[in-house]
Amino acid sequence: MKVHNFNAGPSVLPNEVLYKASKALIDFEGSGMSILEIGHRTELFMNVLDEARSLVKELMQLEDDFEVLYLHGGASTQFMQVPMNLLENGETAAYVDTGVWSYKAMKEAKSFGYVDAVASSRESNYNHIPKQFIIPPQAKFLHITTNNTIYGTQWQKMPVTDLPLVADMSSDILSRQLDFNKFALIYAGVQKNMGAAGTTMVAVRKSALGKVTRKIPTILDYRVHIENGSMYNTPPVFAIYISMLTLRWLKEQGGAAAMERLNEKKAGMLYSEIDNNPLFRGTVAKEDRSRMNVCFIMDKPELEEEFLKFCKKEDIVGIKGHRSVGGFRASLYNALPYESVEVMVEAMKYFSLKKA
Amino acid sequence: MKVHNFNAGPSVLPNEVLYKASKALIDFEGSGMSILEIGHRTELFMNVLDEARSLVKELMQLEDDFEVLYLHGGASTQFMQVPMNLLENGETAAYVDTGVWSYKAMKEAKSFGYVDAVASSRESNYNHIPKQFIIPPQAKFLHITTNNTIYGTQWQKMPVTDLPLVADMSSDILSRQLDFNKFALIYAGVQKNMGAAGTTMVAVRKSALGKVTRKIPTILDYRVHIENGSMYNTPPVFAIYISMLTLRWLKEQGGAAAMERLNEKKAGMLYSEIDNNPLFRGTVAKEDRSRMNVCFIMDKPELEEEFLKFCKKEDIVGIKGHRSVGGFRASLYNALPYESVEVMVEAMKYFSLKKA
Fold it and tell me: Looking at chain A, which residue has its C-alpha nearest residue B30?
């Protein structure tokens, strides 16, 4: 029995990935060893790592200047690692503040240089993506968070700038078509759209590195990881294996273009119900609505607990909203089947009729 | 079919752990979700994390001053994180250099203060543990690497000092009885004796923290992880789950005391064969021999390739020595069955007879 898993991350994965991984835990590729027991410098694992890195490059259609790394530490590590590697003391970086995660990224950058918060929707509890802002031309890069998990907003059009663009894509990577080559550095904790918790993918232009003079701890220097083929230290073997399997699945489905079609269809159906069902209401500006995290509340908040319980009975899990927004959040990542959204919409319709 | 897995890490795990994990990958505790799909702030995962942290505390018999953390990043991250948190600019830390890993730890510490290498066996290719050295009384801590995977040496008696002791125990944690309370901070990549690659255990005395004035990036500040119950950011869920299962197994076996008996028996049998078989020879000082990594060479190096091939036919894997030592290295971590060492010794005996 599988539930309808709307978790915000870690989140639903394709069944094929789970079955394959479950077998690999007992015996990996006929080696007589579990995937957890093989040496990380053996051909067995090098093939996994190489395939994962190649699949990222292929699926994102990245130019040759890009290197793809699988690092330890989550996006929260990138918050400090990015400015440590890209921002010289005394220089300025521009950040657009669209939620808790971009705010945290900004905070960490302040240890390495000046931070210019060029725009923020903090005052309105991050219910929209700022549209009008001036980017200081002397800034070293512009940092954005392409999708804001907690609030359910998403950049629909990337900002136009001559500055190197840096993006945290943890919650919408490979969920839609994008010209990834417009960026200088992209990072993503893989546990939403391209794997399970335990590793972070960094795609970085080699030409963007080596421009700061500070002494960078070896393990935090992107160049060290590039030189070592993303194998400077023992990598998180299993997390990379799961990401590789998830990317294989993603490719079989038709890549980012197919994911975009599916995700538009899923989000469209759910937003349509929210807009048409008198009990529910969306929480963010319509033009900035995320296709990954659909946030909504009830006009009668006293019904929310009851609706949650009703959903639980229908095997719908993970839809409780973040405490800072309240209400509900349904996350519709790549691996969430269309059918789960149908069940969700049916539940909303049925609950609404019951209450009419 | 299981092979005899002498890998240096990632390495062999108990079968019970692998079977349990394989099932949890499909359905975790009847939740209808994989262990990879559950939210990290749900009770389901909090129970896993709490149990893992408690088991570490119990099995290491740590005093209340200790906090146990499961962090991202591997021991190589601790090389810089330890001095960043414990060493003030201008202060001195003492290090004993017993191999590549302690050397790397020393190198990273130099970014944060002065490093006094109080002793080193580098000149003799790290074939022993230095015994005579003077520890500067003004040093802030003394750092040692309790077991040296590449060379096969191990501290049999801990250094006696009034300084806070810091230890990298990545390759022998919980493999023997030790008074862990003699230390101020212990770190260990879990992939050898207490889990699979993907997380690092840090046991740190709260009283040792908060004494440096530098600005520490949030994600690298031990105090932040303590305040957040080792959940500051999305943790490496699966790696922590595997560690919890491995610790459960370890407790069922009888804890560190039982592991010590088993590991002494395994290592004793193998070293005895090395000392008695005319074809083989140990590479390190007898009194410093590691019970975790047994390094040896052949008197006739031209036979080594043939012996390796012979072992492969006997399903013995992972015994090729590190390139800086050559010959062979058999790693006998906690989960390696006694029977695997018997098979190895039989292979050595048989090969020797064949060549006599």
Answer: A1
